[in-house]
Design brief:
Blueprint: E1 3-6, H1 23-35, E2 40-43, H2 57-67, E3 72-76, H3 79-82, H4 85-93, E4 101-105, H5 111-121, E5 124-129, H6 132-140, E6 149-153, H7 159-175, E7 182-185, H8 191-201, E8 205-207, H9 224-235
Parallel strand pairs: 1-2, 1-8, 2-3, 3-4, 4-5, 5-6, 6-7
């Protein structure tokens, strides 16, 4: 089990005063998050205008990897980033500084093709499942066993509803004999519920400003490292 740090995501620039948006800021935050106990990093590279951009992957991965040598670093391939299927495919195929893995949302139409490109260039895949339908689509893919891990990533904000979706996804994976490791996380209101659920289920989890900005006591976190430290403390509870 690990705690992954998700540093920024698609959050707007005013979401938090310490939201890292440049390669240098992401590198600095990465160092602090690893020191706080994060085993891996998940980032959304931004261009010079601070907008998410797949063409910014090379420079950002290089900066973060130089700051945190040996730490696995992943990125998103979300369809909203480029809003164009062919451009998304071309930019991923053209990466020269490869992330260790990239997340692919099974809710997106082009997910199988993006997964194929990532496999062809040697980048691991985190298969993002946000619904039972996503899970059923995933297990029907002929190469689903080749992914690095499964992300159970739930957007529903009511705790019991969110847990129900997560358990439904887990049930589909279990029935299909999927043996890849699972990383489960919530969003905003359910971040800490899912950290605790993941610990109970022996799953990995992630925290960071991509998913939420408050600590378990409801106070505003100072930065990503504070969120990571809180999650690590939960995992270390006896």
């Amino acid at each position: 089990m690990i705690v992954q740090a998700c540093l920024n995501g698609a959050r707007p620039i005013d979401f938090h005063p310490r939201l890292p948006l440049t390669p240098a800021a992401m590198a600095t935050d990465a160092v602090a998050s690893v020191a706080a106990g994060a085993a891996e990093l998940h980032i959304h590279p931004r261009d010079a205008d601070l907008r998410e951009n797949l063409s910014a992957v090379d420079a950002t991965i290089a900066a973060v990897r130089a700051a945190c040598p040996g730490t696995l670093v992943g990125v998103s391939t979300g369809a909203w980033i480029e809003t164009d299927i062919l451009r998304t495919r071309a930019l991923i195929s053209g990466w020269s500084v490869l992330p260790d893995y990239a997340s692919v949302n099974l809710s997106e139409d082009d997910a199988p093709e993006v997964m194929g490109i990532l496999t062809s260039i040697g980048v691991g895949i985190e298969a993002g499942l946000a619904s039972v339908a996503d899970a059923e689509r995933f297990v029907a893919l002929p190469d689903h066993a080749r992914v690095l891990r499964i992300l159970i990533e739930i957007g529903e904000q009511e705790r019991e509803t969110a847990f129900g979706v997560a358990e439904g996804i887990a049930a589909v994976l279990s029935r299909s004999g999927v043996s890849r490791s699972i990383l489960a996380h919530g969003f905003d209101a359910t971040v800490w519920d899912f950290v605790r659920l993941a610990r109970e289920r022996n799953w990995s989890t992630r925290v960071g400003l991509e998913d939420g900005r408050v600590l378990p006591d409801g106070s505003l976190a100072g930065d990503n490292a504070a969120l990571v430290a809180a999650a690590v403390a939960i995992y270390r509870q006896g």
